[in-house]
Amino acid sequence: MRPTQATDHHEAGAPPAFRLVALARSPVRVRSGGPRGSDGSHGSCESDAARSGPSADRPEPDRCGGPDGFAGVRAADRDVRAAVSRVLDQELAERLERSRAVDPVFADDLALRVAHFTQRGGKRVRSQLLWWAMRACGGGDDTSALAALRLGAAVELLQTCALVQDDVMDRSPRRRGRPALHADIGAQYGAAVAPDRAGRFGEAAAVLAGDLALAWADDLVAGTALPAGTGHLVRRLWGDLRTEMVAGQYLDLQGQITGSRSLSRALRSACLKSALYSVERPLALGAALAGADGATTGALCSAGRRIGMAFQLRDDVGDVFSDDEGTGRPAGGDIREGKSTCLTALARARAEAAGDRLALTVLDRALGKHDLSPAGLEEVRDILRRTGALATVEAKAGRLVAQGLRRFDAVPLDPAGAGPLRELLVAAAGGTPAGSAARPEGTPATRPAGRPEATPATRPAGRFEGTPATRPAARAQGSPANGATAGPHPSTANAPAGRPHASPPGGPTASPATGPATRVTAPAPAPAPAPQHDTPLSLFASHSEDSRA
């Protein structure tokens, strides 16, 4: 936007003189150093923002616990979502204070909207995966726990960036039952300018809002004290996650403009936008904070990638076959946007192989048709059933969940986190498939005592919270690795060079809720490289494992 396009409305008369204005000092938060309570909490946590009192347009910071609202590991175990939200509240209160010192209009129009959007976030699945991966890999000291909550908060801000900009790209007017950010800010100025100018302004402002959320996320990561020996790996994973998020989104957009209907392309986009971003990368970050060895990290990531792909496949199905009441979104959004999902790409491949010209005609006519009627959508549904694409995708999703759980169950993990993490993975994928591997001995069959009912036993209607309401999938992170692992314990010998792993902790970790850990740690202190993982196509077509699912 050119500077001359922005105009202020002043009273009639001579234009105001241009002059430099001194900015107020940015508030500096004072972290308490008081004694910890018996549960690991600090004696005082009052910040500058808290001392100045709450305001109607500023999130009220956490008033109990230690730095960043940290009230101890056991308190976070009881409700991870609330613990991450406390960190977000405190950080966002500080960011809003600083934004207001920069410029009040900027703070009210943009920064406040970013803060409110993030605070209204949904299930916090990604940050919960990060936390429970850290706990399952034996992490639980104050440094790793607080780092996990802060990184979880950063992931939520990154998700705000993704969603706000997704809504612009998708031309989606609503998000979470409210006007999307670009529509909301456009409406604020809509009375003063023509509708097309207001709409364009809202979209441009939303791009800046996404950039602001990304900057705040990076600030959170940069300001986090990390456990010794984990800094390089955590920063590398965070950098990969951001790059892969953009790559997955670009592939989605590029597929729409080029009309790509390739199954392999749809799978790669799904891997980047769901398997990696929504599941695998959060698991890898949690494992890194705990200092997990390469074999443990590799097995968790391999399990997470399968669970994430299963989620995406089921999400593709849900977009076409679910109703508005069940999901809160219109059915067929991906079809109308012209997105080539795994489901539609497979149907097209089946139709081409069978010479089914009618099926190809229906798909060509419907994909990208924004005013597709309910009858037209029903024709697409019929093609998806008739070609066998629907049954194949549903069956494959179930097999991927079973494969992922087998790999997860084969890893010796700390019971303090293994049970909740497994439940969360199952819920994310939509429930345990029939015939999935039994839970190994030493893994809790139920939640640790006191764990809240924050994680549903089955996947709730709709997408991962934070997944665009009109997009085919949550954005996923991570460029697909080349090659496939052969079993539940990927060998570190095949890992790419140059990505060190943090040394494992010196011994098993005890959990107050579940007792001594059963996790086995590697005795060698040398860092281990992260293992290679499966390509998207190998996950979809690995018939050898499918037969055992």
Task: Please tell me about this protein's structure.
The protein has 549 residues and is mostly helical. The chain has 20 helices and 2 strands. It has helices at 48-51, 73-78, 80-102, 104-119, 125-136, 142-170, 181-188, 195-222, 231-258, 263-289, 294-321, 324-327, 333-337, 342-354, 357-366, 374-386, 389-409, 415-429, 536-541, 543-546; strands spanning 174-175, 178-179. A two-stranded antiparallel sheet has the order 1-2. α14 (342-354) packs antiparallel against α15. The longest helix has 29 residues, at 142-170. The radius of gyration is 24 Å and the shape is flat. Mean pLDDT is 74; it is low at 1-65, 433-533 and 542-549.
Model regions low in confidence, pLDDT < 50 over at least 5 residues:
1-65, 433-533, 542-549
Mean pLDDT rating: 74
Q: How far apart are the termini? A: 54 Å
Could you describe the largest sheet, including whether it forms a barrel? 2 strands, antiparallel
Strand content: under 5%
User: What's the helix-strand series?
Assistant: HHHHHHEEHHHHHHHHHHHHHH
The largest beta-sheet arranges its strands as: 1-2
Shape: flat
Rg over CA atoms: 24 Å
Helix content: 40-55%
Secondary-structure class: mainly alpha
What's a concise summary of this model?
Helices cover 55% and strands 1% of the residues. With 549 residues, the protein is an all-alpha fold.
SSE topology sketch:
Elements: H1 48-51, H2 73-78, H3 80-102, H4 104-119, H5 125-136, H6 142-170, E1 174-175, E2 178-179, H7 181-188, H8 195-222, H9 231-258, H10 263-289, H11 294-321, H12 324-327, H13 333-337, H14 342-354, H15 357-366, H16 374-386, H17 389-409, H18 415-429, H19 536-541, H20 543-546
Antiparallel strand pairs: 1-2
